[in-house]
Design a protein that fits this description.
- The protein has helices spanning 62-75, 134-147, 214-225, 292-309, and strands spanning 3-8, 11-16, 20-23, 35-42, 45-54, 80-90, 93-102, 107-116, 121-130, 156-161, 164-169, 174-181, 184-190, 194-202, 239-243, 247-257, 264-274, 279-288.
- The protein is elongated.
- The chain folds into two domains: 3-147, 3-Layer(aba) Sandwich (Protein Transport Mog1p, Chain A); 156-309, Protein Transport Mog1p, Chain A, CATH 3.40.1000.
- The chain is an alpha+beta fold.
Length: 310
C-alpha cells in the first residue's frame, strides 16, 4: 500500500495514497484558533476524522472525554454490542481509546483521545469500518496513529489543501479563512504583523500560452475572482525570477497607503504556473512597510518552500 504525507493545523500524518482529505467548509476563524477539524475518505466512504480544541483552563480527564463520546453514540439510538477501553501512546503522549461494535449494523470503530502538551490541545481521532474488514482496518488505523505528529517538529508547518501545498512558520501564524471550490483553492493566514493570501486557480479550458502572459492575465483576473483582496492592492510592475527546478515566477513589490488608517502598506506578490496541471498559483504578502526588513527571511522561505512543492 502506498502512503502520502499530509499536514493540517500543525498536525502531520501519513495516510494511504487513495485517501482524499475532508475540510471544514469555508472556514472563517478568529486569529486565535479555538478548534479545528479535518478527515479523510476513499471511494467506499469516510475513513478517519481528527478534531481538536484548544485547552484554556484545566485539561479534561481523558476518561470523561471517552464517556462523552460513548454517550453521543447512544444518543444516535445505536445499540452498542461491545465496548472496550484501554490506554496507548500517541506521539509521546498518554492516550485513551474506546473500541466499539454496533449490534445490528455490522460496524465497529475506534475513538482515540489525547492531550498534546506542546500545543495545549485536546485531540480526538475517530474511525469506523465494516466488521468484515476489521483486520485490515484495525492494523491500518494503528499504523497511522503510530506515525502521527500532533505538534510541530520543524520550523515550518505543512498545509495540504486541494491542489495546493503551503508552508507557514510554526509560531504566530493562524489559518483565518479558507475556500475550496472547483477551480479555486484559497488560504488566508494572519500573524501579529503579516497577512498572507495563497491562491490556486485551475484554468480548465483556458490556456496561458506563455509565462510572459501571466502578469497581464493576473491584472485582469484577480479583482473579480480572488477572495479577500485588499482594496488598496494594485500591483503595477512584475519582474521575472528563477527558482529551483527551473521554475519561473513573477514578483511584484508595491507600497500603498491605506485609505482608512493612512498608513503605508507593503504588498509582495509571487505568481507562477504549472503547465502540466494548467494551474496558476499566487501568494500575496501584506504587511506594514516598516516591518518588511524583519520579515524578509520569512517571506523568502515561505515562497521558496511553496513554489518548490507546487
Amino acid at each position: 500500500m502506498q502512503f502520502q504525507t499530509v499536514g493540517w493545523e500543525q498536525i502531520l500524518m501519513s495516510v494511504p495514497k487513495n485517501w482524499t482529505m475532508i475540510y471544514e467548509k469555508d472556514t472563517k476563524k478568529s486569529t486565535k484558533e479555538e478548534k479545528g477539524y479535518f478527515g479523510f475518505r476513499d471511494p467506499s466512504g469516510k475513513k478517519l476524522e481528527i478534531s481538536f480544541v484548544q485547552i484554556k483552563k484545566k485539561p479534561p480527564k481523558l476518561e470523561n472525554v471517552i464517556k462523552d463520546y460513548y454517550k453521543s453514540l447512544k444518543k444516535e439510538k445505536r445499540k452498542i454490542k461491545i465496548r472496550k477501553e484501554a490506554t496507548r501512546t500517541v506521539n509521546g503522549h498518554k492516550a485513551r481509546y474506546l473500541y466499539w461494535e454496533l449490534e445490528k449494523e455490522k460496524v465497529q470503530g475506534y475513538v482515540t483521545v489525547w492531550i498534546c502538551e506542546k500545543t495545549n490541545r485536546l485531540l480526538i481521532c475517530t474511525n469506523q469500518y465494516l466488521i468484515k474488514n476489521k483486520q485490515l482496518e484495525k492494523s491500518l488505523f494503528l499504523e497511522i496513529l503510530s506515525h502521527i505528529q500532533c505538534h510541530p517538529q520543524k520550523a515550518y508547518n505543512y498545509w495540504s489543501a486541494p491542489n495546493l501545498q503551503f508552508f507557514t512558520p510554526t509560531s504566530n501564524f493562524n489559518l483565518v479563512s479558507s475556500r475550496f471550490l472547483i477551480g479555486l483553492t484559497f488560504l488566508n493566514f494572519k500573524s501579529d504583523d503579516m497577512e498572507i493570501n495563497s491562491y490556486r486557480v485551475g484554468l480548465a479550458d483556458q490556456k496561458i500560452h506563455s509565462e510572459d502572459e501571466l502578469p497581464k492575465w493576473f491584472k485582469s483576473y484577480y479583482r473579480k475572482h480572488f477572495p479577500l483582496v485588499p482594496s488598496s492592492y494594485n500591483p503595477q510592475k512584475f519582474e521575472k525570477l528563477l527558482f529551483k527546478k527551473k521554475i519561473s515566477a513573477w514578483r511584484s513589490r508595491e507600497v500603498t497607503k491605506s485609505r482608512i488608517k493612512l498608513k503605508s502598506q507593503y504588498f509582495e506578490t509571487y505568481l507562477w504556473t504549472q503547465a502540466e496541471k494548467n494551474d496558476i498559483y499566487c501568494i500575496i504578502f501584506k504587511l506594514n512597510s516598516k516591518s518588511v526588513d524583519i520579515n524578509r527571511k520569512t517571506i523568502e522561505e515561505i515562497t521558496k518552500l511553496t513554489i518548490g512543492a507546487n
